[in-house]
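Form 7-S
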Amino acid sequence: MAETYKTITNVPGWVDLLTSDGVPDSVATLYKYVPLLFRAVQLRCDALSSVPVNIYKGEENEVDWPYPTKLGNLLWQWEASNLLSGAAYGEIVKNKSGFRKDIKYRNPFDMDVKYDRGVYQFKQNSSGAVWHNEPEAGKYQMLYIHEFDPTQDTGPGVGAGKASNIDAKLLYAISKFPEMYFEGGAMPVTLLGIDSNDRNEIERIQNWFRRSATAIKNAFRVLGVRAGSITPVTLTPPLKDLSFPEISEMAKDNIAMAFGIKQTLLDSEAANYATAQEDRLSFYEDTIKPRARLFEDALNEQLLARDGLRLEFRFSEMDIFQEDESERADLLSKLTMAGLPIEVALELAGYKLTDEQAAMLESHQEQLDDRIDETPVDERTTELRKWQKFAEKRVKEGKELREFETSVIEPSLHGAISGALESAKTTEEVKRIFDSVITWRGYP
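Output:
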């Protein structure tokens, strides 16, 4: 049977750090020391809290946020709480008469949640204060928003920070090791082969190497020994070989995926401007909009409904969506001028109407049809063809189109045709505009 021997394997120092107690397990602590995790949280919170918000009383009356604490600050802190701890808390502050006078952020790492027979109990560990929610009765003392957890329904869930905890710890260990390396004098682990049985001599050489490796002032000290008596063997690979870029990139990708953020947003040099803009729009569409709905529903149900208020996030007012809205409006105009029914054109252009908006459109269409029916078709068509010939002549002569005066064509249709004619450059384009109008009686 062959003899077996123990040996030393070249394991990077950061692996020892990762598998020991040297890396914090708390997401809150990792947030302070892992730049990518810090940036991901900041980006998510900044994005959500910067979306314009409107508060309505009733259907249309716009009012101000009714509490002294700024809503933007609360949204930022609540989103950070959800990402790092899986839950967010806001104490609904009341006076002795039960009047709601403010809402205050509460640290999720200082809160315990218990649920029993329809009642939530929230306890603040630092002060011992207790609050209760009874959702079925519509009674709330604490705004409570929590992430999903497949193992339970009532307590804090799994936030993006927890889902990427292992990857954050990995990045911490990789970045921490160089600091420890230089604190140790930038001296790799070295095996000294000493050709001597003298224990005192061996200890003297070991101590000299140890002192020389821990301070710059010892860099030029000299130790005299018998030639060939020491054979140093470096066990640790060079520092440049210990970074493991593939593992580091994998950890970064996992964190970005958990937070729903493209790498282009976390790394300014990851893509060109056009790609970064496209990814930014995708980030708001796929990540921030769903988060906004979560907060919108929670605030409306737990806080604002009691006072007859309603909150809405207004993404369409953001600059990043303005260009997209302009392109969709242009497409809608082209589709309608091509003769498509307005309902079909809206759908193809990406507009989604609420039930109320659809009903208003249908009512408007019926009223328009009634007005059209009141005008003899022949007279209306004759007037349109007259306008067409007038426009074709002006375009053919290279002249600017003038206002066409008529009492037969209804004002809404007159305005739509005038707007469409502004972009017409040829007689064919003019003819196509009027043909589509005459073909589709329900226009516009």
